[in-house]
Amino acid sequence: MQTPQRKVLQQWRRTTWLLVGTAALLLLAGCGYSLRGSAPLSVDLSRLVVQYPNAADPLATDLVSALKAAGVEIIDSQSAGANDDVLVLSIASEQLERRPVSVNARARAAQYELTLVSVVSLSVGNTLLLDAEDISESSEYFEEIENLAGTQDETLLLTQEMRSRLVQQIIRRVSAALP
To answer: How far apart are CA 38 and CA 160, in angstroms?
Structure first.
């Protein structure tokens, strides 16, 4: 059987840990911490026309999805018609570049840098808000000669992560270009 003093001590400990945990959560939330990719994108747009050369382009697909998730109405250029107050975002197909960064003892490339680049422009009617601008993301990886399948999987994963960061970068750049 527990003494009343022991019960009070246990209750005090529980309360202290609860307060410490709550304070830690509030501090993390207050400093702006969020899991990668879970931060909401703030876009001050209501309607937008997105022009891209290829409907199957993964960058364009991810960008349209992110804009819709942020509450932007994506309209096609035919329904926009001659409306001069509609924003038009033009993006070029993504270009993936790979270059060796370091070599191993056998004079073969051991580390590569991947760079994902796209050209973006933003206009309203005949007014150019954002001139054709290169937007890029880079990442590095080590190539394992003994595990080429794993290296290919890592390249695909890095490309997807870079594409996601590129989409966020495009949205931030478009938001900054707005008057």
So the answer is: 15
Instruction: Report strand pairing: 73-75 vs 87-91.
Output: unpaired
What's the pLDDT tens digit per position in 4-52? 888 888 899 999 999 998 988 888 777 766 665 555 555 567 788 899 9
- Stretch 114-139: mean pLDDT: 91
Which has the closest alpha carbon to 114: 171, 156, 52?
Answer: 156
d(CA 87, CA 11): 60
Q: What is the pTM of this model?
A: 0.71
Chosen CATH of 44-177 out of 3.30.160.150, 3.90.1580.10, 3.90.1310.10, 3.40.50.300: 3.30.160.150
